[in-house]
Amino acid sequence: MSKEYDNTNRGASFINNRKDKETQPDLTGKINIEGVEYRISTWRKESAKVGKYLSHAVSRVEDQQAPSTEALDEEVPF
CB 3.0-4.6 Å disulfide test: which of 3, 13, 22, 69 passes with 29? Predict the structure, then answer.
């Protein structure tokens, strides 16, 4: 008896092993909020006032569309 896993209102972040610049996130992942998929980026930060903390940025996965293939449909001139 297999039950399909419900990922609603859950997510996970993983260490960004491809980080080349300080501006890139330390962790990345996806989170599902009320059935909508979001990409989450997390940076480890530190301030004199509060000490160490995590800073997050969230964007909808559907807003990050793949490059258009419209130009590929046109006839190539060579």
Answer: 13
46 to 10, 43, 51: CA distances (angstroms) = 26, 10, 5
Quote the Cα angle for 35-18-8, to 5°. Answer: 10
- The two tokens of residue 51 are 């000490």
- Reported as a single tens digit per residue, the pLDDT across 26-71 is 999 999 999 999 999 999 999 999 999 999 999 999 876 665 555 5
- Rounded Cα distance, 46 and 2, in Å: 45
Alpha helices in 1-78 (DSSP H): 70-73
How far apart (Å, rounded) are the C-alpha atoms in residues 13 and 8?
15
pTM assigned to the model: 0.70
Q: Where are the beta strands (DSSP E) in 1-78?
A: 10-15, 27-33, 36-47, 51-60
